[in-house]
Design a protein that fits this description.
The structure is a single chain. By secondary structure, the protein is of the alpha+beta class. The chain folds into 2 domains: about 35 residues, no CATH class; about 60 residues, no CATH class. The protein is about 30% helix and about 15% strand. It is built from 4 helices and 6 strands. The strands form 3 sheets. The chain has a two-stranded parallel sheet with strand order 1-2. Strands 3-4 form a two-stranded antiparallel ribbon. Strands 5-6 form a two-stranded antiparallel sheet. A hairpin with a 2-residue loop joins β5 and β6.
Amino acid sequence: MAANGNYGLAELNLEKTFGGIGGTKAREVQRIDLSRFEARKAEIADQLWAAASEIGFFQLVNHGIPQEQVDEAFTMTERFFALSHDTKGQYPQLKGTNSGWEYMSQVRPSTGTPDHKESYQITLCGATIKVRIPRQSG
């Protein structure tokens, strides 16, 4: 944070105005069309940035991933987050990485308080996705 109390990123300065306890605000979750991706990269990047920074959520459509794989990913995610904290804690997001489980450990720069959430990060390294997850037994 600069001496004038502002951050170098506009979205962090905007976040400072949100206050502590939020309210309810109706917003439309944007559907971002990935068709003709190669020809539309800049347009899609702009849409992703706007949705992520203004709303915080978006839905991708025409991405080419079969629905069965999407459903499987949601099922596996649900199973992982249903595990105990002790089990999930065996796969922590390590300092300096963006891979692993975290629970209320991401601190909002504008408030200095942890986000009230848990997440599991997966990092793409070259052509390999680094995933550290519990293996299924049986």
